[in-house]
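Hello Y.,

Per our agreement to keep a running log of every chain we model this quarter, I'm adding this entry. I've kept the format consistent with earlier entries: sequence first, then predicted structure.
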Amino acid sequence: MISFDWAKEIPAAVTITDAKGTIIYMNDKSIAEFEDDGGEKLIGTNLVNCHNENSNNIIELIKYSLKPNAYTIEKKGKKKFIYQTPYFNDDKYAGLVEISIVIPYDMPHFIRDKSV
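Predicted structure for the entry above:
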């Protein structure tokens, strides 16, 4: 069994699926974030049932390309950074991790390249 203790209390919503797309973990923030959709009852359901066709296509793309998807959204008056990425067990695709972090509207951006 994989331990997700690191994710329990971080200030971001963490949702994790298995390789078939079944939600196997939601931290407290994720459960609260998706309370209107069922909250903790979403554990054991498939992501396909939670998303529209466009979102499901993106999920499939992540699954088969094995590359992450990242973007920002505004929802309920908050700006969020969404990071969706595959994870692996013994180099084999094991599922998806989605991390949703509230970010400031005027978040600073720094260039840390020494050549600039």
